[in-house]
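Q: Hi! First time doing this. I have a protein sequence and I read that you can turn it into a structure. Is that right? Here it is:
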Amino acid sequence: GLARQYKVAPWSARHFELMEASFKLLARLGNDWLFVPVLSNTELGNRKDSPIKWTRKADGSLRFDYAALDRYLDLAVKHWGKPRVISFVIAHGNPVAASEVEVFDEATGKFVTLDLGVDHMEDTPVVAAEHKKIWKAFAASLHAHMKAKGLGESMYWGYTWDASANRDFVKFLAGVAPEVYWTRGAHYAGVDKVYKAVTQTYGFRGDALMNGRGWRHKDLWLVNSRRGWFGCFVGCAGVDTPFMFRYWPEQALTFGHRGIGRIGADYWGIWRDGCEVLNMAKTRGRTKGTVGYAINALIHPGPDGAESTARAEALLEGIQQTEARIFLEQALEAKRLPAPLAKRVTDLLRRRVRATRAIVSSSMSTQYDYCWQGWQKRSRALYRLAAEVANRPPAKDGK
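A: Yes, that's right. Below is the predicted 3D structure, encoded as structure tokens:
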């Protein structure tokens, strides 16, 4: 979206200059997830471009150029610190799409399209030996490069939707780089032994007090950006008011999730035109799908890069309030508060939930009602109590 918006070549010097503003804004929001398109025509909006350049040398072997990738990663580290997740997109969310990359052929001096031979519909579940040889060279090279940059623990493969990646392919890559897990954004599928960083839409519930305390989770189990359907009230969509963005982070944690994800930042124009590989045409008799983002953009195109928006600022306020809630919940769990103060903290957190639990994504009436029903008073009470807890010495024997 960024390169298209400003009419610059993808991964060019000017493209990276424009990225700077987006990365700065995402740093304010605590973003910890970076996508890297490896395949052509991913849902991220790239066509035949990628920050990783493939070359077929004269002797037939492959060489991988990471110069643009390194600049991209360095930009993320500069503004965010080391990302928790760097997801290399080697599988399309829609399994119909072909796994292809552009390769420069030294022998001919031309670019050719290389089919990497993975069918994620699993019509041919076993990946051919000739393709495994290519994948082994790439995966081993990239993994070694990421470890050399100190980012090996952040490396993941991705990025599937509801359907899992080809089982034979997943098993094979685990043999090449056993420390590298997978990412996905699904409706019902959650974290498992393969997928360790996940955004999930449905299939979870909070308890009566909605105090799931999602910060306890070791794995990165996030709420997917969607409308609140099927009895699940956790969600946020692009049609929602800024106030829903403010409420969403705390809502996610009270339902037991680690945070929120699958949110477009500067994903401008991609939904309107659609990715080439994700339109509604048919391939091999199968229907393709459109881009599955409920929120395409948090930030807005300014004259020289991205600028903040009301929804981004509301989300930032919501994250700050969620941090205050986490601080209080951790104080309760550590049993370091005097009993009367612990009761006040518990009562306040429960009151916050009761006041907001009926707010539903895409329901304008509940969101507007919340704006008029004491949100400033609740915020003030939350911060004041957090300050009181922070300034007290640890309790002794619950007194």
